[in-house]
Amino acid sequence: MLRMGVAVLLLGVLALGFGWWHRANAMEQVALGNGLAGVDPALAAAAKPVRQIRPTPMETLRRISRSMGFGRASHYGPGLEGNPTASGEAFNPRRLTAAHRTLPLGSRVRVINPTNGRSVVVRINDRGPFVKGRVIDLSTAAARRIGLMKQGVGRVELRLLINESV
After folding, report:
1. What is the pLDDT along the chain (166 residues), one digit of tens a residue?
2. A Pfam family matched by this chain, by name (predicted)?
């Protein structure tokens, strides 16, 4: 009886081992003409193209912001659409751009509306504003994002974004 139990146990272990070995060495079945063919899973995986995942700009660059203080902002928009900006591109009020007197063209600035906490990152592509007491002119889209459309002019905080390679 003991020999019988040991034999059954040994057969069970062998069956489990064979199942594990068979699963590890199983061939993937693929259609070939009217029938099926076995393909080694390792070869099948190697034949499939590997999707390359490119890092996002935020993963490759670390953004550091430098506060430029507070000031008054206004917006300019649809009436000037298509006019050339100081950078040479045509003005588009639907883009997140702005005009500043001294910042280099192409600079990125976070504009924060302290009354509601909303912010937007704009690219400086023009010169201005040419009204005393204002520090930045926002495009219509940027002004809408921070809730500056109704009042037209409002107090904002500016933070210059500096890209630093990681």
Report:
1. 777 777 777 776 666 665 555 555 555 555 555 665 555 555 555 555 555 555 555 545 556 778 889 999 999 877 899 999 999 999 999 999 999 999 999 999 999 999 999 999 999 999 999 889 999 999 999 999 999 998 889 999 999 988 654 4
2. DPBB_1
CATH number reported for the structural domain that contains residue 149 in this entry: 2.40.40.10
Domain containing 78: what range? 57-165
**DSSP-assigned states of every residue in 96-154:** -EEE-SSSPTT-EEEEE-TTT--EEEEEEEE----STTEEEEEEHHHHHHTT-TTTSEE
How many domains is the chain partitioned into structurally? Answer: 1
